[in-house]
């Protein structure tokens, strides 16, 4: 899920310190790296010292069609894929059984020892080295007693993401409706988590990290099917960004890829994949946002793509960014643009980032589209008396089921809610809930996205959502 920057932000940031890109921690103290040789490095939740929670999240929004139809919707029945708990080479889990197709076997059954495979560990670039003393390591360990558990939760969320997207790669085809695809992804995630999220509090233990994004063509991000609106059927010529999140105890894996069914877009996808991998490579303790962004842009804009006999330079989109992630908060206040900036903000030990990039054949600037993508409770929501009973009861439902996790109308419908729009409008107008809209480049353009979640650790960053697909 991308973070939309405020309009013009990138142009004033030199003069204006209050933009989200640099919301905190300019030159923050480097903290040490922790690391154990088995790769179970401690990992600091990053919520200790800079939780200013300025909640300056860029706007997001979403929109559109679909009807909500139930939960279970296996699409193509294909033969079972064997892929029991796909393991990364370094994985320590053992799979007692295999994942089904569509995926419905809870991950805990595939990894009976409860240890989930680690992601890709990458050496930090030399110029981002952080040095840590034993003393610092002990300090971190004391400060973050739940570290191993947190890391394991994170790896579980990532493995669920990989297994569910494996099903997407194999089963999603033109002719299917976006509602069916979204429901299929969400049914898979919830089944593997073992949390259907139908009882109060259940989806706070594990659930969708944000509304499943299925953005087509010029729509770059923040589109999810909504109940009661005309459904959209995936076409052969479409470029679809599949962006979904999985959380375990609030630790959100945010990872996305682009699907196409026509090789004409291959270079567009290659540009964006390269840009995202470049961003990941430049990430690390003490890495500067400005350096990461410049490297991303250079990689992205070294490509061109020919579509319908016209050659387009691939442009990096200027007003949506990667972002850090905090527990239950998808946009933690730091932003990683895909275009050059002078932002001196650094990544810090223990932080989590969603490194995503978007490339386009359009103008490289996104506008809010019609409709709604989703809603998210503002972490700094004012507490106030709400005169409207429907707003009060809706807020209670939100607190019980989502907290500050972004959700969409389909997620409310499956809880049995209806007629909540008036209450929602009241929550939005009172600043308690933020609303997100679809983000579109110009009509006729094509946009693509790739995204991974990376844990910043001085001893070796962990691209936790890395798979053999992207
Ligand atoms: Co994201």
Automatic annotation (TrEMBL):
A divalent metal cation 1 binds at residues 243, 254, 451. Residues 154-455 form the Peptidase M24 domain. Residues 1-128 are annotated as: Disordered. A divalent metal cation 2 binds at residues 254, 323, 356, 451. Residues 1-15 have a biased composition (Basic and acidic residues). It is an enzyme of class 3 (hydrolase). InterPro entries: Creatinase/aminopeptidase-like (IPR036005), Met_Aminopeptidase_Type2 (IPR050247), Pept_M24 (IPR000994), Pept_M24_MAP (IPR001714), Pept_M24A_MAP2 (IPR002468), Pept_M24A_MAP2_BS (IPR018349), WH-like_DNA-bd_sf (IPR036388), WH_DNA-bd_sf (IPR036390). It catalyses: Release of N-terminal amino acids, preferentially methionine, from peptides and arylamides. Keywords: Aminopeptidase, Cytoplasm, Hydrolase, Metal-binding, Protease. One of its GO terms (biological process) is proteolysis. The keyword Hydrolase applies. It is found in: Cytoplasm. One of its GO terms (cellular component) is cytoplasm. Its cofactor is Fe(2+); Co(2+); Zn(2+); Mn(2+). Binds 2 divalent metal cations per subunit. Has a high-affinity and a low affinity metal-binding site. The true nature of the physiological cofactor is under debate. The enzyme is active with cobalt, zinc, manganese or divalent iron ions. Most likely, methionine aminopeptidases function as mononuclear Fe(2+)-metalloproteases under physiological conditions, and the catalytically relevant metal-binding site has been assigned to the histidine-containing high-affinity site. Its EC number is 3.4.11.18. Belongs to the peptidase M24A family. Methionine aminopeptidase eukaryotic type 2 subfamily. NCBIfam families: met_pdase_II. Cotranslationally removes the N-terminal methionine from nascent proteins. The N-terminal methionine is often cleaved when the second residue in the primary sequence is small and uncharged (Met-Ala-, Cys, Gly, Pro, Ser, Thr, or Val). HAMAP family: MetAP_2_euk. PANTHER family: METHIONINE AMINOPEPTIDASE 2, METHIONINE AMINOPEPTIDASE 2-2. This is Methionine aminopeptidase 2. The lineage of its organism: Eukaryota, Fungi, Dikarya, Ascomycota, Pezizomycotina.
């Amino acid at each position: 899920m991308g973070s939309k920057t405020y309009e013009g932000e990138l142009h004033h940031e030199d003069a204006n310190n209050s933009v989200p890109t640099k919301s905190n921690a300019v030159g923050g103290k480097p903290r040490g790296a922790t690391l154990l040789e088995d790769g179970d490095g401690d990992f600091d939740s990053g919520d200790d010292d800079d939780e200013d929670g300025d909640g300056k999240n860029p706007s997001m929004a979403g929109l559109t069609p679909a009807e909500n139809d139930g939960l279970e919707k296996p699409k193509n029945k294909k033969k079972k894929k064997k892929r029991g708990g796909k393991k990364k080479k370094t994985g320590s889990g053992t799979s007692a059984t295999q994942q089904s197709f569509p995926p419905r076997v809870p991950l805990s059954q595939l990894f009976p020892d409860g240890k989930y495979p680690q992601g890709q560990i990458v050496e930090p670039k030399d110029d981002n080295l952080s040095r840590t003393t034993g003393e610092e390591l002990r300090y971190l360990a004391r400060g973050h007693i739940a570290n191993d558990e947190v890391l394991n939760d994170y790896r579980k969320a990532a493995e669920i993401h990989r297994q569910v997207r494996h099903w997407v790669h194999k089963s999603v085809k033109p002719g299917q409706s976006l509602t069916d695809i979204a429901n299929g992804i969400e049914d898979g995630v919830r089944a593997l988590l073992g949390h259907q999220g139908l009882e109060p509090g259940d989806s706070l233990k594990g659930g969708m990290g944000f509304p499943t994004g299925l953005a087509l063509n010029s729509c770059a991000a923040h589109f999810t099917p909504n109940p009661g609106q005309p459904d959209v059927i995936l076409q052969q010529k479409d470029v679809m960004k599949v962006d979904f999140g999985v959380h375990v105890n609030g630790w959100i894996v945010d990872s996305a890829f682009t699907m196409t069914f026509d090789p004409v877009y291959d270079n567009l996808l290659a540009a964006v994949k390269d840009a995202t991998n470049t961003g990941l490579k430049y990430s690390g303790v003490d890495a500067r946002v400005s350096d990461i962004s410049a490297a991303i842009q250079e990689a992205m804009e070294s490509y061109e793509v020919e579509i319908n006999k016209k050659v387009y330079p691939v442009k990096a989109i200027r007003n949506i960014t990667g972002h850090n992630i905090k527990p239950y908060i998808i946009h933690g206040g730091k932003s990683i643009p895909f275009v050059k900036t002078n932002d001196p903000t650094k990544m810090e030990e223990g932080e989590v980032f969603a490194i995503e990039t978007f490339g386009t054949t359009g103008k490289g600037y996104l506008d809010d589209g019609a409709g709604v993508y989703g809603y998210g409770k503002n972490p700094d929501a004012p507490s106030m008396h709400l005169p409207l009973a429907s707003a009060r009861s809706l807020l209670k439902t939100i607190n019980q089921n989502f907290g500050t996790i972004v959700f969409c109308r389909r997620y409310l419908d499956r809880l049995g809610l209806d007629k909540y729009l008036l209450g929602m409008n009241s929550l939005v107008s009172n600043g308690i809930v933020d609303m997100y809209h679809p983000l579109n480049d110009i009509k006729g353009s094509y946009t693509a996205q790739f995204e991974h979640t990376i844990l910043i650790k001085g001893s070796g960053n962990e691209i936790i959502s890395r798979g053999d697909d992207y």
